[in-house]
Design a protein that fits this description.
Elements: E1 4-8, H1 11-20, E2 21-29, E3 32-39, E4 42-48, H2 53-65, E5 71-80, E6 90-98, H3 103-107, E7 118-119, H4 122-132, E8 139-146, H5 153-163, E9 167-169, H6 172-182, E10 186-194, H7 201-226
Parallel strand pairs: 1-4, 1-5, 5-10, 6-8, 8-9
Antiparallel strand pairs: 2-3, 3-4, 5-9, 6-7, 6-10
Helix pairs in contact: 1-7, 2-6, 4-7
Length: about 230
């Protein structure tokens, strides 16, 4: 059976997965703690990487190289960018993009991509779409933009004009980048904590725990469809 690598940025994001995971082993690599076991019978390894692109990349590489993940799912919270997105909507990334990296860095140099976008795995997307048909919470599909900053209202319009993402975070494209060069399936699943109407770090803090419970439910649901 395929083994899922679950990558979260924070302990708050990881906690709901550990509640439903039968953990058989815990090991440490690169100052990170990896939990191996099963989730509803599905082989899985889960980790929280810490915030930012490089931390996510380190954890993603270890999930693949050391722990043998057949796919990596980046699950957690995100800020809503599209005006139609509401708090607690879950965004599944059809593609990911860095919003703070010059586009020719990826297309003219390693890994010589055809565009600035990292496409998500079609099998994982299909599983997510099937799960979304009966999901208890809204699940939408589109672009997630990644960069090293918490996006306040003044930054949302800039991202809309440039990339038209549904949501933004600090890890997705970093993990997608690692999966791209390793040719390992990738998907990001992010539940929204803050929007134009409910914005700022306070909104994130207020809504984060509930958002993380929802994103874990969605992720486990799509994994059942994937395997």
């Amino acid at each position: 059976m395929k083994k899922a690598g679950i990558l979260c940025a924070s302990d708050t994001e990881l906690a709901p997965f550990l509640k439903v995971m039968e953990v058989s082993r815990v090991t440490e690599k690169a100052m990170l703690k990896f939990y191996e076991g099963t989730i509803q019978g599905i082989p899985a390894v889960a980790v929280y990487s810490g915030v930012c692109k490089v931390n996510a990349a380190v954890a993603a590489e270890l999930l693949i190289e050391v722990y043998g993940a057949d796919a990596v799912i980046n699950a957690g919270a995100a800020g809503g960018i599209d005006p139609q997105i509401q708090v607690f909507d879950t965004v599944v990334a059809e593609r990911a993009v860095y919003h703070d990296v010059a586009k020719d860095i990826l297309t003219e140099f390693h890994p010589w991509m055809p565009s600035v976008y990292f496409s998500s795995d079609e099998d994982l997307l299909s599983a997510a779409r099937k799960y979304a048909e009966t999901a208890r919470h809204p699940v939408v599909f589109g672009t997630i933009a990644t960069g090293e900053a918490f996006i306040e209202n003044e930054g949302r319009e800039r991202l809309r004009r440039k990339y038209a993402p549904l949501a933004a975070d600090m890890e997705t494209a970093g993990a997608a980048h690692v999966c791209y060069v390793n040719q390992v399936p990738f998907l990001a699943v992010r539940t929204v904590t803050d929007t134009d109407e409910e914005s700022g770090a306070e909104a994130f803090e207020r809504n984060c725990e509930r958002a993380c419970e929802i994103v874990a439910e969605v992720t486990v649901g799509l994994l059942r469809e994937w395997v």
